[in-house]
Design a protein that fits this description.
The chain is of the alpha/beta class and about 600 residues long. It folds into three domains: about 230 residues, Aminohydrolase, N-terminal nucleophile (Ntn) domain (Glutamine Phosphoribosylpyrophosphate, subunit 1, domain 1, 4-Layer Sandwich); about 190 residues, Glucose-6-phosphate isomerase like protein, domain 1 (Rossmann fold, 3-Layer(aba) Sandwich), CATH 3.40.50.10490; about 140 residues, Rossmann fold. Helix content is about 35%, strand content about 25%. Strand 9 and strand 10 form a beta hairpin. The radius of gyration is 25 Å and the shape is globular. The site of 6-O-phosphono-alpha-D-glucopyranose has 16 residues, from helix 9.
Length: about 600
């Protein structure tokens, strides 16, 4: 999604702004731009498409100036053209914006009624005109921003430059994150996340909802939503430039797939007490015993992790679970019992739909649990029970290591819930600890099939449609496999509960549709194999992902088989995530798509 960086510097800033934008590329974008102040004017360079285009603009027509703002745009209002790219500017102000100004239409009409001329189709441009109008009327920048902010409905992070004030940058946040960075040499920075600022500084202050900040060369003054001066703690972000390196891997996605044994182990370390053979939570005295119903809400890959958790919570703790995609949750007027647990799962902790759902559940008297990978995110800060994953920064747009870490945390939560409900004996808990502790080694073993999967990826790369089938916790994995494939290879893929295939999707089966069957040997294996045979009977080409026993029993007649290590059903969703990730990855590479930044997608979707 859109990214912001701003520098109030000592030397020319354009190169560093471009560098900052490169670090934001992972969020997904389709145009970009930079504005600086120099020679008494606001000057901009903007370009459609990738940053290399903006880089070319800057090389042929360099942008001097020691104060500037920059933006990567993920189009919402108006196509990804140069004229819609940020910064948006008048003669007096230039600004960049993340989020959506929901009331932009009436504001635009009002401004046009006063003769203001718009040069883009964006919602953002109204903000530039509103601030500019005030400045042109002689209002000082701080007062202008203070007056305009309450007029904006929706979500925003803003960074604004003023032509007549060459040492002034004003930032504001409501619903979209914005961080302030302090340089050692008196420079100050704004960024949509700490990662963008990592090469500049690690000294970060996170603006809170409704905060706005006035930055000059003398420093930064923060105001809260009531315009009262406030201090926000300065923390060391801990993200270094090196952490977003691809290492020896061709893509971030592959690097992140390979990191899974280590990051899952790191995550489990905070939830498993190996010596005591206990599964614990970061807040050990959080009252889970009184929870009678759990509502799980998330988007995308995180939603599929939630779907696996639903099976676990119901099976182990016998607690009823409601499960919703966040964008639907609020609008179906869900029934929530006072004191129920609402569980939100998010890699970024900033996804607008999930955040809105969280706030809705909070208003409905729910206790809020959050499984999140970014500990400084908005969701993390609004949780009653914060359950961090320790996946480290995930750069590939298609989520991989965050998913398996989420599963690790959710398994630990299921065990805690079961114990609190009196449904887990000490011996059962010991078994869970043992099985979860085996996950990192099993993930490693699964990665050994990388080359083999690469070798068969061409079968899938040639297809127009692909079906994924699974039962039980392999059903959410089928959905996740299909999501991974469509996200990065652009092949149409559907995930189905294996038993549901005969109720419709079977009509699609012919010898051109590969069917990926996820079926570890176990109680549901025979049923899934029956569905697989229904596919084969109709000429369908099956890729069976199972363990040695499963492949021996049912591998004959398959187009290909992928043999996973034999693992306990509890950790199977983590282990079987690896082959579906690798398959999507190698198919995408075979098709030559942009694996880490697939078209139209954003890493963290901060608009509803
Ligand atoms: C976007 C990403 C998905 C991700 C989803 C939820 O759509 O492209 O990969 O699963 O957002 O993101 P979250 O950060 O809330 O897990």
């Amino acid at each position: 999604m859109c990214g912001i960086i701003g520098i109030v510097g000592r030397e020319d800033v354009a190169d560093r702004l471009l560098d900052g934008l490169k670090r934001l590329e992972y969020r997904g974008y389709d145009s970009a731009g930079i504005a600086t102040l120099h020679s008494g004017i606001i000057d901009r360079r903007r370009a459609e498409g990738k940053l290399v285009n903006l880089g070319k603009e800057l090389s042929s027509d360099p942008l001097p100036g020691s104060i500037g703002i920059a933006h990567t745009r993920w189009a919402t209002h108006g196509a990804p053209t140069t004229s819609n790219a940020h910064p948006h500017a008048t003669d007096e102000v230039a600004l960049v914006h993340n989020g959506i100004i929901e009331n932009f239409k009436p504001l635009r009409e009002e401004l046009q009624g006063r003769g203001r001329v718009f040069t883009s189709e964006t919602d953002t441009e109204v903000v530039a005109h509103l601030v500019s109008e005030a400045i042109e009327a002689g209002v000082l920048p701080e007062e202008a921003v203070k007056a305009v902010l309450p007029r904006l409905h929706g979500a925003f992070a803003l960074a604004i430059l003023f032509r007549q004030h060459p040492d002034l940058l004003i930032g504001a946040r409501l619903g979209s994150p914005l961080v302030l960075g302090y340089g050692d040499d008196g420079e100050t920075y704004l960024g949509s996340d700490a990662l963008a600022l990592a090469p500049l500084t690690q000294k970060i202050a996170y603006l809170e909802e409704g905060d706005w900040v006035v930055i000059t060369r003398e420093g930064a003054k923060i105001f809260d939503k009531d315009n009262v001066p406030v201090e926000r703690p300065v923390t060391l972000s801990g993200v270094s430039g090196a952490m977003i390196d691809k290492g020896n891997h061709r893509h971030f996605m592959l690097k992140e797939i390979y990191e899974q044994p280590v990051v899952v182990a790191q995550t489990l370390k905070s939830y498993l007490q190996r010596m005591e053979e206990r599964v614990t939570l970061p807040i050990p005295d959080f009252d889970l015993g009184s929870i009678r119903r759990v509502t799980i809400v998330a988007c995308g890959t995180s939603f599929y992790a939630g779907m696996v958790a639903k099976y676990w919570f119901e099976q182990f703790a016998r607690v009823a679970v409601d499960l919703d995609v966040a964008s639907e949750f609020r609008y179906r007027t869900p029934v929530m019992e006072e004191g129920g647990l609402a569980l939100f799962i998010s890699q970024s902790g900033e996804t607008a739909d999930t955040l809105a759902a969280l706030r809705h559940a909070k208003n409905e008297g729910q206790k809020i649990a959050v499984v999140v990978n970014v500990p400084t995110s908005t969701m993390a800060r609004e949780a009653d029970l914060l359950l961090p994953t320790h996946a480290g920064p995930e750069i590939g747009v298609a989520s991989t290591k965050a998913f398996t870490c989420q599963l690790a945390v959710l398994a630990a939560l299921a065990a805690n819930l079961a114990r609190a409900k009196g449904r887990l004996s000490a011996a059962e808990e010991k078994d869970i600890v043992r099985h979860l502790a085996e996950a990192p080694a099993a993930l490693n073993a699964a990665l050994a099939y990388d080359e083999m999967i690469e070798g068969m990826a061409h079968h899938v790369a040639a297809a127009r449609d692909v079906l994924y089938l699974g039962r039980g916790t392999d059903y959410p994995l089928a959905l996740e496999g299909a999501l991974k494939l469509k996200e990065i290879s652009y092949i149409h893929a559907e995930g189905y509960a294996a038993g549901e295939m005969k109720h419709g999707p079977i009509a699609l089966i012919d010898d051109a549709v590969p069917v990926i069957v996820i079926a570890p040997s176990g109680p549901l294996f025979d049923k899934t194999v029956s569905n697989m045979q229904e596919v084969q009977a109709r000429g369908g080409k099956v890729v069976l992902i199972s363990d040695y026993d499963g492949v021996q029993a049912a591998g004959d007649g398959c187009l290909a088989t992928i043999t996973m290590p034999k693992v306990h059903p509890l950790i199977a969703p983590l282990v079987y995530a690896v082959p579906v990730q690798l398959l999507a990855y190698h198919v995408a590479v075979a098709k030559g798509t942009d694996v880490d930044q697939p078209r139209n997608l954003a890493k963290s979707v901060t608009v509803e």
